[in-house]
Amino acid sequence: MGAYILRRLLLIVPTLLGIMIINFTLTQFVPGGPIEQILATMEGEGDVFAGISGGSGDADIGGGSSEYVGARGLPPEFIEQLEREFGFDKPPLERFLGMLWNYVRFDFGESYFRSISVMELVLEKMPVSITLGLWSTLIAYLVSVPLGIRKAVRDGSSFDTWTSALIIVAYAIPGFLFAILLLVLFAGGSYFQWFPLRGLTSDNWAQLSWPARIVDYFWHIALPVLASTISAFATLTLLTKNSFLDEIRKQYVTTARAKGLSERKVLYGHVFRNAMLIVIAGFPSVFIGVFFGGSLIIETIFSLDGLGRLGFEAAVARDYPVIFGTLFVFGLIGLIVGILSDLMYVLVDPRIDFERREG
């Protein structure tokens, strides 16, 4: 198992390299780089893309050309100074290799527009996204696994029918729409004001006692976590139900029952270990789906300052160090979660041997 984990860890390097190459290459062709942003602001243009399609100059993100749209009337020396400050006076390959060398040392550079290192920004915003991802995944499993088992045991009953209808309806509701509904109903909209409208903690959180801080924390994350979890219930519940149904119908379950074992012993002593393998296999997709897919929308609606919102704002502002830094962190977390999923496989069923399987 140790050799397998080592191979998986080594695969992280080429995977992250591929992610960075693709995204760095894409930025070379996207119009409206950081210099364009500054020039458009100085020229008083509300939209940095104004005039790009009609101008004769090209917005060269790589810094190879100084004929920026919106730079008319500005001295060329000023444009060259901007290129030097942003590092765009160097060829793209040289900039990319320099970025990789810095990333090996976890030096993500400094934000173009915030005068703060990208690492500080990531560390500042990460707790919010981690909070949403972990709590949403935990709640989804705590609810969906027992519910899926009960549905499998009572397959075809009225309980199975109405719970299936309920979770399918929940799955059909878009996460952002459900988040807005929660805000309107319970966060000072037209009905109740039971939960705060924004933020992860109250303004006076530092002055609260530790028990009060814990209560305040859960009070703030209740609605965002619920909104980001709603879509995960259906997939996980039906996956658990179908997995248990498949195992319950196998011969070894019939044999165990014939030996006089109780239904609970059969279910949790024999079926559970085999049925949970496929459920555990879905853990990375559930966590990554919540952490990546829902983070931007949920963080924006509930005014939570997390990584998803940071990455979106950086993309709009063309703050490339922040964009690449957040992509690197997202990719690294996703790859590590995949390795943890394999470790959970072995924890549930020690008979699994990844090294022998690969051999």
UniProtKB/TrEMBL annotation:
Main location: membrane
Signal peptide: none
Annotated Gene Ontology cellular component terms: plasma membrane
Keyword flag Transmembrane: yes
A single GO BP: transmembrane transport
Domain of life, per lineage: Bacteria
Membrane topology recorded in Swiss-Prot or TrEMBL: Multi-pass membrane protein
Name of one Pfam family that matches: BPD_transp_1
Annotated TM spans: 9-30, 128-149, 161-187, 217-240, 275-302, 322-348
Protein's cellular compartments: Cell inner membrane; Cell membrane
PROSITE patterns: ABC_TM1 (PS50928)
UniProt cross-references to InterPro entries, sorted A to Z: MetI-like, MetI-like_sf
Key words, A-Z: Cell inner membrane, Cell membrane, Membrane, Transmembrane, Transmembrane helix, Transport
Stated family: Belongs to the binding-protein-dependent transport system permease family.
NCBIfam families, per the entry: PRK15133.1 (NF011712)
Name of the molecule in the record: Binding-protein-dependent transport systems inner membrane component
Organism lineage: Bacteria, Pseudomonadati, Pseudomonadota, Alphaproteobacteria, Rhodobacterales
